[in-house]
TrEMBL record:
Organism ancestry: Bacteria, Bacillati, Bacillota, Erysipelotrichia, Erysipelotrichales
Protein name per its UniProtKB record: Membrane-bound metal-dependent hydrolase
Superkingdom in the source lineage: Bacteria
InterPro entries named among the record's database cross-references: YdjM-like
Origin species: Coprobacillus cateniformis
Membrane-spanning segments: 12-30, 50-70, 97-119, 125-143, 191-207
Record keyword Chaperone present: no
Keyword annotations: Membrane, Transmembrane, Transmembrane helix
Pfam family for this entry, one: YdjM
Length: 209
């Protein structure tokens, strides 16, 4: 993985995850049910605020979208935490345990259990931060599935890597045309456009009707 090659794509994926989750929770009344009630004591008045839940959702999805790449020493997080990154890379390699869906499931369960012992309104705040963390992290795994190296979705039960092509490309080799699969390769216009198109399509489906 070249320096920062997938960083911006994963950030865009985190923003996409935030947008889709925000729209879904609003459309289905989840944002209303679990919004944060702000009390203005001197005026004896309270109002329902979407700002704080959406802010937490955005911040956590944005930053967790690059967290799995802490297992690579030359990634942004890898350089920030070199000892952790080097250990993870030595033990599991790149796109190893930090990229397994079962790891995300385990982290999600831990966040949920911690939230259960909290009292209101902190539980609501923790819930939105946790949702943001999970969807941002999930966006990273999904995007890396579109990478040529793929992701081992069924680990630890199977080492088979799932990789989904995003198109085809024709290469010339010794005067002959050869068709090959096209995967995401990082900070390229093609890659970012795919993410934007997917986001627009899903937003259309979520808001339809």
């Amino acid at each position: 993985m070249k320096k920062g090659v997938n960083y911006n794509c994963h950030k865009l994926g985190g923003v996409t995850a935030f947008a889709l989750t925000g729209i879904y929770t609003y459309q289905n009344g989840i944002l209303d049910t679990y919004s944060y009630h702000v009390e203005i004591i001197p005026l004896k008045f309270s109002y329902q605020s979407y700002i704080i839940p959406l802010f937490l959702l955005f911040i956590f999805s944005y930053y967790s979208s690059t967290l799995p790449d802490i297992d690579h020493p030359i990634s942004r997080l890898g350089k920030k935490y070199p000892h952790i990154s080097q250990y993870m890379n030595t033990q599991f390699g790149h796109r190893g345990v930090t990229h397994y869906p079962i790891t995300l499931l385990g982290l999600g369960c831990i966040l949920y259990l911690i939230g259960q012992i909290m009292i209101q309104p902190y539980r609501i705040l923790w819930m939105w931060g946790s949702i943001g963390f999970v969807v941002g992290y999930a966006s990273h795994i999904l995007l890396d599935t579109l990478n040529s190296s793929g992701i081992a979705w069924l680990m630890p039960f199977s080492k088979v890597r799932v990789k989904i092509p995003t198109g085809i490309r024709i290469k010339n080799k010794k005067g002959k045309k050869r068709v090959c699969w096209r995967y995401l390769e990082g900070n390229r216009t093609h890659d970012k456009m795919i993410i934007i198109v997917i986001c627009c399509l899903l937003i259309f489906l979520l808001t339809k009707g």
